[in-house]
Amino acid sequence: MIDAEVVPMLVAAGLVGAGIIVAPMRHPRRPSAGKRLLAHARDRSDYRMFVGVPTASPEVWVEIATVTVPTVATCGSRTFPLEEVQAFFVAYPRGNLLEYHCPGNLPLPP
Description:
This protein is of the alpha+beta class. The protein contains 2 helices and 6 strands, in the order ααββββββ. The protein has a 6-stranded antiparallel sheet with strand order 4-3-2-1-5-6.
């Protein structure tokens, strides 16, 4: 026979175990910043896109010319590996913001 004090502990352990299994399925991991940027580049060709540089610790925004699978090329001919992108924003042609991702809260340009 099971002790009455053990039953609540077994139930709690079962609920915790179920939560560990179910939680990752309910909240899939969000794509990296580089993958989000690439998705926008593939979506429309008239978006205005900017990347925060330096990529490791963004301090300024630089406009993007092209985004491909391995790299991001800026209008100033600098290139960065897509996987290193930490901060970016995408705007519609008239300037309305579509997406902003910047862990360091680098302010948007006017």
